[in-house]
Amino acid sequence: MFKGKLLHGGDYNPEQWLDCPEILEEDIRLMEEAGVNCVTLGVFSWAVLEPEEGVYDFNWLEERIDRLGEAGIQVILATPSGAMPHWLTQKYPEAMQVQENGKRNLPGKRHNFCYTSPVMREKIHALDERLSEQFGKKENVILWHISNELGGNFSDGACHCKLCQEAFRGWLKKKYKTLDNLNRAWWGRFWSHVYTDWNQVHSPAPHGEWSMTGLTVDWRRFVSEQMSDFCRSEIQAVKKYSDLPVTTNFMAFFKNLDYNRLKQEIDIISWDSYPFWHKSKDEVPEAVWASANHSLMRALKKGPFLLMESVPSAVNWREYNPLKRPGMHMLSSLQAVGHGSDSVQYFQWRKGRGAYEKFHGAVLDHLNGKNTRTFRDVAEVGERLYALTECLKGTVNVPKAAVIFDWENWWAVEDTTGPRLDLDYVECVLAHYRAFWEAGIEADLIGMDEPLDGYRLVSAPLNYMYKSGYANKVKRFVENGGLYVTTYFSGAVDDTDLCFTENHPLEDVLGIVPEEIDAPSEEFANSFSYQGREYPAVRMCAVVHPKEGTEVLSVYEKDFYAGAPVVTRNSYGEGQAFFIAAQSDMDFLRVFYRDMFQKAGLQNALGIELPYGVTITERVPQKGYKGQAAEEGVVFVMNFRHEPAELSGLGEWKDAENGEIVSSVLRMEKLSCRILTK
Amino acid sequence: MFKGKLLHGGDYNPEQWLDCPEILEEDIRLMEEAGVNCVTLGVFSWAVLEPEEGVYDFNWLEERIDRLGEAGIQVILATPSGAMPHWLTQKYPEAMQVQENGKRNLPGKRHNFCYTSPVMREKIHALDERLSEQFGKKENVILWHISNELGGNFSDGACHCKLCQEAFRGWLKKKYKTLDNLNRAWWGRFWSHVYTDWNQVHSPAPHGEWSMTGLTVDWRRFVSEQMSDFCRSEIQAVKKYSDLPVTTNFMAFFKNLDYNRLKQEIDIISWDSYPFWHKSKDEVPEAVWASANHSLMRALKKGPFLLMESVPSAVNWREYNPLKRPGMHMLSSLQAVGHGSDSVQYFQWRKGRGAYEKFHGAVLDHLNGKNTRTFRDVAEVGERLYALTECLKGTVNVPKAAVIFDWENWWAVEDTTGPRLDLDYVECVLAHYRAFWEAGIEADLIGMDEPLDGYRLVSAPLNYMYKSGYANKVKRFVENGGLYVTTYFSGAVDDTDLCFTENHPLEDVLGIVPEEIDAPSEEFANSFSYQGREYPAVRMCAVVHPKEGTEVLSVYEKDFYAGAPVVTRNSYGEGQAFFIAAQSDMDFLRVFYRDMFQKAGLQNALGIELPYGVTITERVPQKGYKGQAAEEGVVFVMNFRHEPAELSGLGEWKDAENGEIVSSVLRMEKLSCRILTK
Amino acid sequence: MFKGKLLHGGDYNPEQWLDCPEILEEDIRLMEEAGVNCVTLGVFSWAVLEPEEGVYDFNWLEERIDRLGEAGIQVILATPSGAMPHWLTQKYPEAMQVQENGKRNLPGKRHNFCYTSPVMREKIHALDERLSEQFGKKENVILWHISNELGGNFSDGACHCKLCQEAFRGWLKKKYKTLDNLNRAWWGRFWSHVYTDWNQVHSPAPHGEWSMTGLTVDWRRFVSEQMSDFCRSEIQAVKKYSDLPVTTNFMAFFKNLDYNRLKQEIDIISWDSYPFWHKSKDEVPEAVWASANHSLMRALKKGPFLLMESVPSAVNWREYNPLKRPGMHMLSSLQAVGHGSDSVQYFQWRKGRGAYEKFHGAVLDHLNGKNTRTFRDVAEVGERLYALTECLKGTVNVPKAAVIFDWENWWAVEDTTGPRLDLDYVECVLAHYRAFWEAGIEADLIGMDEPLDGYRLVSAPLNYMYKSGYANKVKRFVENGGLYVTTYFSGAVDDTDLCFTENHPLEDVLGIVPEEIDAPSEEFANSFSYQGREYPAVRMCAVVHPKEGTEVLSVYEKDFYAGAPVVTRNSYGEGQAFFIAAQSDMDFLRVFYRDMFQKAGLQNALGIELPYGVTITERVPQKGYKGQAAEEGVVFVMNFRHEPAELSGLGEWKDAENGEIVSSVLRMEKLSCRILTK
Predict the structure, then answer these.
(1) Among this protein's residues, is C548 annotated catalytic?
(2) Residues C270-299: pLDDT tens digits?
(3) Which residue in C174, C220, C217 sits closest to C198, CA to CA?
């Protein structure tokens, strides 16, 4: 926690209102009423901070920071590289992105810069250093916020300009040393794609190469590298005169940027959460989606993170944008905290009058001042967070299970062709994660390069690519007693998308020999029976052969591969490995993982079965926390249903907020969160 | 009326048949048989009129005009700028459009020119002046027709070349004087979009700016300005040697060009009507669509207009193109006349042998000469129009109600983001207009800048943008006894898409304070009860608070905003204002407007309830008509059903065509029109 | 047959495995086990054959050919122009294609070259000549294979570079002599599209001309011409030192290239067949599709052809890719042979480790060597083909019926606008062809320029364009006793898409006068009664008038054209012509053609009714076959159902493979083929 607080506040853009002093004054007053203790300043403010090249105007910012400080409000200070001022793009058009069609962008929008561009870096560094000098030691400035949603721009988020092509070639040279190595890694003799000069390499493009998956996956790696490098260069600038930690706001399941790479540059993970609540009366899919992202963010650095943006009412960019129903703002805010966030921050404090986000939800609307449902909802969150501060201090979630979620695998499995083109890695991971969520058993979402130590159960669905060292790590994990689950289309290729040709790398651990994969039409869907109930086998049906000693728990019931295994178990060392050969449905995954949890000795913090729509998480005092941590763990019980829920059999707990004793039965309002402690 | 005639005829392209004299001769003969009294010549004829730069060949045209004159057929003479000859695009490629992606078009298609291009203007003016000189005083030439369907070209209809960018900047300078003003109007500090040099402004582009709605709406205004300027420059050329009036053919609900701007340049409104008849057995939606466009065109200059194009059988450019069923050609022709058209003109007289429109319906097909159903249908229309001439002379429709339909609002409400992205302004306006249509109560479709005097009821659905002066005009209208209806998402922004921040500009008139707008998913659809029946509240549900004294006629029945108003009434001065908070369905609008009509003292010309599928309009002698007008009004009764209809309770009328007395009951054939008088 | 063999084998890419000698050795061994007697080498091998400009390395290829020769395996040797090496595109970027948007491609993918480019031709010819010199007389090299799937590249397959524009203009000059002729043929005065300089002509482009159908159809002709010219130029190169015949692999219903043009350059037709088996349990549509393509390929040169590519398991490029069910590989292989193929070849022998086609089915997978279902399936095919060799020697199918399938008609009818835009010519032809297939009556698919001699029944559905001479040929065909069937929207335009303006060119033969064509919506669908049963008339309903003496067999039952003919018969000379005015369904076509077959005296080889899902073909000794042909015809009976079938009433036959006598009843396994002889 920052200075012992749960942060509450959000993006604040006073530069849009500098000619309305009464608005600026009202802002401070209403922040206090709303229990806001922290705002983010400076995102997209470049044109106001540096109105002409080399001419800086920080007075308004200093005034605001000071005024906020007087009101006891902390500041997260952003570097403004998220949007380029017009004087910059006019004088240095080469600083703008080139899209994959080879066309240089025109000025406008945001995130429109080349990550390689020296002039872009030079200009933003000069400004960042000044910001660092002037504000880096301000008392109420607590954190640097680098740029905004890095990579969230045109099409693939990457720049394809000549400088980027050069940088890509340099990166490849460093990685492969020789073209021979590169040609071998990319299987270059297919379609005569042998490179004989480094300059022949070009980024993937619709009017050029897009069929060479080795190139594509390396290009994506390079893009993440280059974005991270840009971020690092800004960090160096802001740290010049400041010791404050840095963050940058991540996005939900953001494919263009490998956060396992970028996280290495920053101190604190933060992210922007925008679940699509009220798409359906069944809020569980969105709740699972949000929890999965929280779990991913928390797992990146195995510790607390910040919810940097969320919306207090409705966003403005979806096809349709429902208002948050009563209770949902509180519930989704506490969901973040329950999963390890030490903040609830909003985009945005006040709706602007014009341009793209003028109807994006905010604490303050255009009309009615504080007399709105939204304002009241926000103030309630502020109050509750304030009250929870002590009992959450120094706590964090410590799951005993993990689901593998890996960017490189994501890229590779969706870019490859066959057995089907519509594979959705995130959807698949979410289905498996949901089984954990429904049981109230927390799981980290971790990359393949992360250690597996400390987990009892690791699930690796659709784990197509085995990066170097991964198979051995899994072997050791299972040997040492771990429980490992994986599926069809796992372990097919190595780091550069070359198929394994000897054996499946985990053949011994899984105890199966894969032969072929059917991608049947709906009419040819298969089925299998598991523990006496029948489940569908659809879309992807691997045909594998069990090795001797492998236990076949279920087999296909139809078609020519009737009798081939669908679920297998193999003991290996002290542990066990399970293989699921076919895509099925949630009903199956729910039952399957119930067994896994039992075998792994995992249960949720309350030790009970949860009704549909309810999940729980637990924050426990963090090992090595510097400061006075809470003494007890706290359990967040969340009801995402539009009706009340009743949990029974949970023993005796105490409501951490009102002290009420909860004994055996816990009754919950619709869309609500209760926080319990022992 | 032109020289006392209802025009009947259409586009005639003899230049395609100059080497077939027998065809040219047959044309005249069959025109006479078809009752054709007017044709349009010269549309797209540039390459034949000026086969080489500066070399003109008008002989064929003169021959045709004279020959037509001999047969008593009048001529509308078009300038041929609708399509550029290849010698022009070859020598002056800069005269062709640049699309929004920055790419210069290649030659081909039509409408492919830059509206700013000096060379295009120079070349067409030289030709126009010659046409003016040679034909401007011909006895049977009655009207200039400028170009063709202006703006109906590639993508957004606009040119994005350097000259257009320059012109746009000049237009902005004139409008805003200073960049400060512009930055304020466009809310430029959002995303650092502050302009510090006029040259930084660029038209909206997919690879540049498209998120700045102030820029976008101004760009659209400029494009309309530039097209109008081009039109004006051609008008100057044709008027050099001629006093004839000018028109240009408009298109149905054509978004790219604000006809309220362009109408200022021309003398007579004309338009091209292509309803999609027979898409469904229920022809009402298409009939409403056509009537709405007629009403819009008529309202532009508050007077008679010309139906410039329609198809005598089927068009060729829709996914599928049904033949007009018997009766429909007559009915849709008279529908135009009934709404104020003084003509029924066709595209086209004769199908060409080749290229894009060879299968577009025409009076004459490739085969069978006049021995076709289509030719007979056309001849019948000619005969009937001829017979109606006297009783329609000097008459026009004079509605007492108006529906606001405004181009700038259209652009703004569909370009903005939130509460939902799929808003369809035309669809919404049509739903409200349909309530009038079904009741047989005529309404003008007018822009926000038009006076409201003379109307008893004004409806302004989805009236998102309040242009300067609009709110005050509405206030005065209601104060003076007018009845005003408006809906959710009205009055949100000013002329440059800046949100109002004090109050809703019509808060006092409407008697409501808006708070938030829900855009619910289908599962969360709401409902309300109105006069004892329940109606759906879907897609857009505003939550507003009634002010003291405002009468709440209906409230939401579900969800957290149950009890909030859906329909309100507020008395203001002598009048009343109604607010509809949610999108509903046709059933609701039908009932709601029935009440409005009653309150406003509006009834249709027959004073009766109409069966479904039947509508009526009335033409009355026009005030100030120069010439001998008819003495009585005439009522057009139109049955768009595929079955007979019976109207009862209508008192005594006379069939204006056969003199038959209609007493109390009027029986109508399917797809037919009866014309009654007192 | 080549050297008396039914070829079995496929694409072999040893260049991908040159550093794995054990793999190369295993290849030969397993080919022998799989009954492979022929492989295709060199497709896409340019980068390995000529690693630097002018530096050749043929050693690996020679070694492989010799090694294959030792194993008794023949070689089809491909020229490697299907993919360009990077040294070529780097040094000569002008050799790459320019797409229709005017953008030059980047290197990558395959088929990325300009067919006109002199440098591309020079480089590939130099290589081809060397190949010819070194391998053109090798004993086990039997056939040249030019390039790969010509035209199968970006978007429309055509190059739009300046050189191609020049070549197009040259081609037009040669065709039209004068611009006057061209302008007349393209109806250039429409929209002022008169060309006054040859340089004004540009290929169709989205940002230029696409509305001029005369230009478009000529452009498509030119593109076919240019591709054929490129192919011819390669043929000249390989024939420099070699007398071997040449082929190039065609694709299924490939619109971009008129195979009736390209066939003139090559000696032997071959094609790549990839039906989408198991999309549905009803395999008939795909079986019909495959048969139709086989029939098209066979008819191109009226003789045996080669199945050059097929997949032994699943492809990798469809949205989903089902495994071939047991039996289907054998059945679809024999389907090809039954329709006239003298080979069963695969793409590919062994799956590569990387890049775009690593998961494309192959005889050998990445794992498990020969221990796969796929390998066993392939080996069975090899065995069965070997056993069938003698009884198929010198045989070919000789249908007595033909369905017109013409590329120029295809282009024209789908490019024109009206009466509906979604016409699908292939779908329409397939529906008619299917009636033949279901009856087991073979039909050739032939172009309009082919002779009709020898056929008793010719069907020409959706025969929109009548090329010069076609109408007269049909007249003679019917006069001489032929039975001719055609439909709505036939005979509308001439070679350059100009509508006929006198009469329908076959008015006398068909005995009808067409008036108009309705393209009704679903709600306005019509119907007709034929032989006592009602059928739908949908999507396209021509209204025609019977001439005197024409027999009306069925009429519309609804709408204003109720009573107009749907099916007519007209006797003309010794023959009869049938006209079908409306699109109907398969039920109608089945019944209609049953009558046609009877009238034409056509029956299938077994002379019986076939159960659904079963078809038959017959190969008979070929007239003029050089060599020892089989003495008897053989009949292929194919069951495409997933259940057994029973055929009865077929008299006495002998199973050509096991000698078993089949008397009266033939029982068939699911997905199986029986081969009978007398």
Answers:
(1) no
(2) 999 999 999 999 999 999 999 999 999 999
(3) C174
Query: Of C190, C501, C523, which is closest to B281 when you measure between CB atoms?
Result: C523
In the block, tokens 């916020």 appear at A145
**pLDDT at residue A154 greater than cutoff 70:** no
Using an 8 Å Cβ cutoff, are C483 and C457 in contact? yes
How do A443-446 and A551-555 pair as beta strands? unpaired
Phi, psi of B340 (to 5 degrees): 120, 5
Give the whole-number percent of chain A exceeding pLDDT 70. 100
* Beta strand extents in A239-390 (DSSP E only): 246-251, 268-272, 306-309, 343-346
Contact C210, C204 (CB under 8 A): yes
Residues B86, B107 contacting (CB under 8 angstroms): yes
Q: How many CA atoms lie less than 13 Å away from A536 in the CB half-sphere?
A: 14
CA distances from B172 to B185, B418, B495, C380, C496 (A): 11, 27, 14, 78, 50
| Cis ω before B348 (30° cut-off from 0) | yes
**Chain C: touching chains (3 or more CB pairs < 8 Å):** A, B
Option in A82, A105, A355 nearest B214 (CB): A355
Q: Give the Cα-Cα-Cα angle B69, B72, B75 (nearest 5 degrees).
A: 55
Q: Under an 8 A CB cutoff, do B207 and A154 touch?
A: yes
Contact A320 B417 (CB under 8 A): no
What pTM, to 2 d.p., does this model score? 0.97
pLDDT tens digits for range C158-207: 999 999 999 999 999 999 999 999 999 999 999 999 999 999 999 999 99
Counting as contact any 3 or more CB pairs under 8 A, the partners of A are: B, C
Confidence (pLDDT) at B625: 85
Number of CB atoms found within 10 A of residue C453's CB? 10
- Within 8 A by CB and 6+ apart from B427, the residues are none
User: How many angstroms separate the CA of residue A498 from the nearest CA in chain C?
Assistant: 5
**Is residue B309 among the annotated active site residues?**
yes
Alpha helix (H) ranges present in A301-348? 328-338
Contact (CB<8Å) C357/A417:
yes
Give contacts of C85 with chain A, Cβ < 8 Å. 192, 194, 196
CA distance C605 to chain B (A): 42
Q: Is the pLDDT of residue B155 over 70?
A: no
Burial of C649 by CB count in 10 Å (0-12 exposed, 13-18 middle, 19+ buried)?
exposed
Question: Considering CB atoms only, which of B189, B209, B417 is closest to A108?
Answer: B209
Nearest-Cα residue of chain B relative to residue C504: B367
Residues annotated in a binding site of A for substrate: 110, 148, 317
> Which residue in B320, B364, B368, B670 has the most chain C C-beta atoms within 10 A of its own C-beta, making it the best mutation to test that interface?
B320
Tell me the per-residue pLDDT of C129-154, one tens digit each, with 9 for 90 and over.
Answer: 999 999 999 999 999 999 999 998 75
C-alpha distances (whole Å) from A331 to each of A34, A529, B616 are 17, 38, 57
Mean pLDDT computed over every residue of chain C: 97
Instruction: Tell me which of A100, A129, A234, A309 is the catalytic residue.
Output: A309
Instruction: Name the active-site residue from C234, C309, C408, C450.
Output: C309
* Nearest CB partner across the interface for B107, out of C190, C202, C416: C202
C-alpha closest to that of A196 among C52, B237, B323, C482: C52
Beta strands in B313-452 (DSSP E): 343-346, 395-396, 401-404, 443-446
Could B200 and A107 be called an inter-chain contact, meaning their C-beta atoms sit closer than 8 Å? yes
- For chain A, how big is the Rg over CA atoms in Å? 26
* CA terminus-to-terminus distance, chain A: 22
> What is the side-by-side order of every strand in the sheet holding A634-639?
A395-396, A614-621, A634-639, A672-677, A645-655, A661-668
Q: What mean pLDDT comes out for the span B634-642? A: 98
Residues of A in contact with B187 (CB under 8 A): 16, 352-355, 358
Tell me: is residue B183 an annotated ligand-binding position. Answer: no
Question: ipTM, 2 decimals?
Answer: 0.96
